[in-house]
Amino acid sequence: MSGEREPEQQAEPAPSRTEAEGATPVTATGDLRRSEEAATQAGTAQAGTAQADTVQRESVHDGEVRHRSVQRTLISLTAPALLIGVFTGVLLWGIDEVAHELEIVLWDHLPSWVGVAPDSAWWIIGTLTATGAAVGLIIRYAPGHGGHDPAKVELVAPPLPLSALPGVALTLILGLAGGVSLGPESPIIAIAIAIAVWFTRRFARHVTVEMALMMAAAGMLGAMFGSPVAAALLLTEMVAAAKRGGLLWDRLFAPVAAAAAAALTADWLGVALVAPESPGPVSPTLEILLWGIVAALGAAVLGIGAAWAMPRLWRLFRTMRTPVLYATIGGLVLGILGAVGGPITLFKGAQQTADLVSQADTFSTAHLIWLAVIKTLALTVAAAAGFRGGRIFPAVFIGAAAGLAVQSLAPELPLQIALACGVLGAVLAIGRDGWLALFLAVAVSGEIALLAALCIVMLPVWLLVTGGPEMLVHDKEDGADPHNVTAKEERID
Predict the structure, then answer these.
(1) Surface-to-core class of residue 452, CB atoms within 10 Å of its CB (0-12 exposed, 13-18 middle, 19+ buried)
(2) H helices then E strands: how many in the chain?
(3) Residue 219: band (very low, low, confident or very high) from pLDDT cuts 50, 70, 90
(4) Do residues 369 and 381 lie in contact, with contact meaning Cβ atoms separated by under 8 Å?
(5) Between 49 and 268, whose confidence is greater?
(6) CA–CA separation, 146 and 157 (whole Å)
(7) What CATH number is given to the structural domain containing 358?
(8) pTM of the full predicted structure?
């Protein structure tokens, strides 16, 4: 209707200044804030990158410094290592020569003067009994008492004082010349270690006692076995057990250098172990491997028997209190065993092993087993009765005899495999060192191509050996750990 008023339209409020000007200032402020944050983050990232680059450069620099330090250390150890290596080779030659000359007197000249056969039972018994009495007197009265008892320590033992070395050398030489069934390993390594530690303390003070010990031990092992590989293999376990930083070969560098120098020196002087010539490569079949395992297990059983009996016999001998008595009785028992087994079962066994192999066709299976048993008994008695010597060389003879016995039953088993497997089993059980067992097994066979087969043969043997006794005496009275060369610190004169 024309008289009605139309409702008034409410006027819209005037826009604020901000709204009138639009949203641009708010957006600009947010963008500015985000730009500042981004710039801050970028600056932080650049600072972090620069710091990381600095740390990396410092790390690289520190690494280079360490490498140069290690190089300087190894260079400084080279000359003492080579010198000690040459010395150990000469020492082995000197001890071997003196023992050989005395052996000629005892087993050639004296029987000839007396008018008896050197292989007669009474001469064998008398000589070994007298040898036992002489060794017992040295152990009882000489300074140092003949050094470490090998029944109570590993191949490498703590350093001895220099005052003990004449007694150690005399007992070793008497045992080698008198026909005792022990090798030179433990005592001659002890002599080398004591002299090397004394030398480095006087003239090469940068060489630690531990490193001097390892150099001397490696040198003598290299000299005896004619190869630095044997020393490297044996010392690898010792070095790894120490659980110290650094590369393994940095720590083995100087010992291997000593072993190489010693092996060359011993080879030039004609006293190193000489591997036989290989008759030719052999491809082991499954049947050959099975017979090889039989040979290795048979030899290992003999070694385990010796490891079980030796500590018990050692304690029985010690009830006699004085070494003069128990060493003399031990010599008497060794003489009886030698008379029963014959001259081939006497001495350390290196030359006797070669004779056994060359005469294998003349022995029956029963005779070969008998020789292995006699040698095992002789080794056990000698180790328990206080004689100073090692067990590795007699173990090689035991293994060779056991391997030849199995080979006589199975002619299809090649001679070199029979020998290698027998030696592998005996050394593994008596020495409890797989590296040494493999090395000597390859050495007696003269065929490196057998290594893979020997590793297969070793598996069941190790399963047997690892659950068996160890051929070491754990004496509660001294409380020493026979596996720890630093367990009993000795004063060095």
Answers:
(1) exposed
(2) 17, 0
(3) very high
(4) no
(5) 268
(6) 14
(7) 1.10.3080.10
(8) 0.81
